[in-house]
Amino acid sequence: MEHHHVTRTPIFRRAIHWLIAMAVALLLILWFAADASAENGQPARPTVVLVHGAFADSSSWNGVVSRLLAHGYPAIAVAVPLRGVKSDAAYVSDVLRSIKGPVVLVGHSYGGMVITEAAVGNKHIKSLVYVAAFAPEKGESAAKLSGRFPGSTLAPTLAPPVSVPGGKDLLIRQDKFWKQFAADLPEKKARLMAVAQRPVTEAGLNDPADASAWKTIPSWFVYGELDKNIPPAAHAFMAKRAKAKESVEVKGASHVVMISRPGMVARLIRDAAGER
Question: Are 157 and 172 in contact (CB under 8 A)?
Answer without folding.
Answer: yes
